Amino acid sequence: MKKEIGISVLLFVLCAVTSIMNPKFLSPVNLVNTANLIGLYGVFSLGLGLVIITGGIDLSVGSMCALTGVILAMGLTEWHWSWPVATLVVLGLSALLGLAHGLLITRAKLQPFIVTLCGLLMYRGIARYIAHDSTKGFSGAEGIEPLRHFVSGKIFGLPAPFAILIVLSVIMWFVLHRSIYGRYLLAVGRNEQAARFSGINTQLVTASAYTIAGLLTGISGIMIAFYTNSVGPSNHGNFYELYGIAAAVLGGCSLRGGEGSVVGIIIGTALLLVLQNLVNLLGIDSSLNFAVMGAVVLFGVLADQLFKNRSAKKITAPAK
Amino acid sequence: MSNAPLLSMRGIGKRFPGVIALDNVSLDIGAGEVVALCGENGAGKSTMMKILGGVYQPDAGELFMDGVAVKINNVTDSMKLRIAFIHQELNVLDNLDVAANVFLGREPKNALGLIDFKKIHADTEPLLKRLGLDVSSKTPLEKLSIAQKQMVEIAKALSLNSRIIIMDEPTSSLTLTETDRLLELVLELKKQGVSIVYISHRLSEVEHIADRVVVLRDGKNAGELPKADICHDKIVSLMVGREIKSSYTASTATKTPGYFKVRNARSSRYPAKSVEFDATRGEILGFAGLVGAGRSEIVKAMVGLDHGGSAEVTIGEERISIHKPADAIGHGIYLVPEDRRGEGLVTAMTVRENTTLPSLEKYSTFNLISKDRERKVTDEQIKSLKIKTPSGESLVLNLSGGNQQKVVLGKWLSMSPKVMILDEPTRGIDVGAKAEIYRLMRELADNGGVILMISSDMEEVLNVSDRVAVMHEGRITGVLERADCKEENVMNLAVGKTISAAKSAVNN
Question: Does B348 contact A190 at a Cβ distance shorter than 8 Å?
């Protein structure tokens, strides 16, 4: 909980500083836009966070967005699928790919880094092949307005992706912090051996985390495709997995597993996007974008580690 | 003893928190002598050798090499004195070749400052010949068998011109022919003037090669046997000669014999050997044996935790075949594992989260956990087991060993165990907590539970168990009834002898 408070303070300070230096930060347009982006990135970050909690990693997020984006666009325009069919295909495919990752990791005992790295390479390649390396859009697709409206319109006055993120976060909060499955997930991430000795089917728990991550990436993928409105298969979604990892880590997930919270992941995502917004609004050279992001993540993790070392000393000091 | 001692350890003392591991122990090693160091588990053999190897520093005592006082402050000091230590778990790097392993950490350099591969291979080959190891110095270690890897360690010792080689249980994972080969080699090395300290539970090997046997017991010298006197029985009688305070409390339970039957239990470690036994409701059945007898592996097979192991189990009238942990847990068969922190607990979680981990369904509605219900059962366990913790919300890693063990117990006790298996339940636990754990075990038995307890602590085995099953190399060599639970009987069965005094009551 302390961690969430820490980064919330950081987020708040960042917002305050930005709005003082450039009041445009608080303009409705900017806020809506930022919230929209938080929604788009937050959904796949939730999935990545889940995987990171099991002690794994998913590097395939960006490529999966590209692949699902291409299939969605081509399905709706060139293959004349109705939007419910296209949606189901995309979500089913992404969940299936996630499941495949999970099975390769738990059954074939491959390392998550390798499995999802291969995913990163393969899905990107397949996306480019299917699209003949040309950008795909949605013009000409008929009857897709309900879907477009649902994922890129407004829900209760909020940008749809942001509203969807809130709903999914609430669900995931219950899953991770209140359900049996969530407890198992944390236990497996902390000490798989002890979890197994307690009768938990650790393989199932881990594999399902990858499946859920795949599904969430699929949901993001649809929203992102409609947000960009065109899918260039060679660069759509580039680096998204790294945004997600950065957000999860900033939000208190440990790459060693067993640690992390939904609130933390969401605030971590928000922090990264506010940071980008800040770079734009304060007129910082946008080529420094990644450098700023890297520096903040580094600072956050370093501060957390220092804090941890200090409190660890406090605990052990009186004991001996 | 004819030789003037090459090395002499005098009055060595070593204490660990709460334990006196060594108390005024002395050991002489002559040049070209094979000294066997014997004793029960925990007698102090390994501690003594770790002091010689520079792993531990003694709290008291002196070391003399060639009559000159020496200090061994670390492993390097020990190496400089030309002492080599071959640990039971081999310290070799599988990804490097033989020569690289032999010269690890002291690679000769060529003119460019890079490793002089020519030299290390040229120097390694003759060592391999001397040991009769028929592999090239360029073979990667992963291609070698365990016995061959061990030879590589010995080659390393020889390349250091070691005068003393300590071998800790060197044959524990070797086949019979490999063992014979190793014993020959020991005798060969002895002829070349190398002294060997040989630690082994296998007394026939000791009989075969030792010039002298030094026996330790409870961290003290228990006696020595010169070559002419070395025999099984004399070694065992020195090993067990202590008096054990009897604090056995008989059970008050009404016993239901044959309630828990285990048949065809096989572990992946000894796949060719099967174990079967019966346990009675209301009894504590102890499992004794030397380290490596396969006790932990068998119980892991019984609760579905040993990949490649299996067991058929009957509780009451119900036959259960166990393939995965949930099979055992679902029928009330629980394991308190030996490795508390690694296997028993998620130490970075709270007492509450650990207590309810295997039984979360009980505290949930529609899969959502009720923390209130969790807290209630956790508080009950904290109270009834007297777990010393600020609250159920404390992280387990902040508790003492004894209290951590109680958390493991509480976790299973909250799930009404039928059969509770405890593997080294009091290892590393202080005396007070030990007594409480024994009391809890007895209580559980008196309430109709079946308790199986693996222990390498002879005192614990004899004082806590109603009957004792003794294992040796993957088999049960005998089950001792209470009246026959004598240290001597246990030891004899543990080294693989059958004894007339021990009523062989392996149930069929």
Answer: yes
Q: Please tell me which residue of chain A has the smallest CA distance to B361.
A: A180
Q: Judge: B325–A198 Cβ closer than 8 Å, yes or no.
A: yes
- CA-nearest residue to B349 within chain A is A187
**CATH code of the domain in which A57 resides:** 1.10.3470
Decide if B21 contacts B10 (C-beta within 8 A). no
Mutation for B interface: A198, A201, A311, most B CBs within 10 A: A198
Smallest CA–CA distance, residue A122 to chain B, in Å, is 30
Do B161 and B220 lie in one domain? The reply is yes
Range of the domain at A294: 2-310
Are residues B199 and B45 in contact, defined by beta-carbon separation less than 8 angstroms? yes
- How many angstroms away from the CA of A255 is the closest CA of chain B? 15
**B118 and B236, same structural domain?**
yes
- Kindly state whether residue B435 falls inside one of the protein's structural domains: no
Put simply, the answer to whether A197 touches B346 (Cβ < 8 Å) is no
CA A313/CA A307 separation, integer angstroms? 10
Statement to judge: residues B227 and B131 lie in one domain: yes
Low-confidence ranges of chain A (pLDDT < 70): 1, 311-320
Any idea how long chain A is?
320
Residue of A nearest to B365 (CA): A179
Closest residue by Cα to residue A166 from A12, A38, A64: A38
Q: What is the pLDDT of residue A313?
A: 61
| B373 in any annotated domain | yes
B52 or B432, which is more confident? B52
Number of folded domains that form chain A? 1
Whether residue A318 lies inside any domain: the answer is: no
Q: List, in order, residues 6 or more apart from B381 with CB less than 8 Å away.
A: B355, B387, B407, B410, B411, B413, B414
Range of the domain at B130: 5-240
Contact criterion met (CB < 8 Å) for B367 and A179? yes
- The strand order across the sheet containing B318-322 reads B275-281, B256-266, B310-315, B318-322
Q: How long a stretch of residues is chain B?
A: 508
- Predicted TM-score (pTM) of the model is 0.80
For the segment B125-169, what is each residue's pLDDT rounded down to a tens digit?
Answer: 999 988 888 899 999 998 988 889 998 999 999 898 899 999 988
**Segment B272-287 mean pLDDT:** 92
